Amino acid sequence: MMLSSTEITVLQSFRKFYMEPGEMLCFNGVDLIAKTPALDSLVTKRFLVREKFAGAFSLTRSGYAEMRSST
Question: Which residues contact 54 (CB under 8 A, 6 or more apart)?
Answer without folding.
Answer: 28
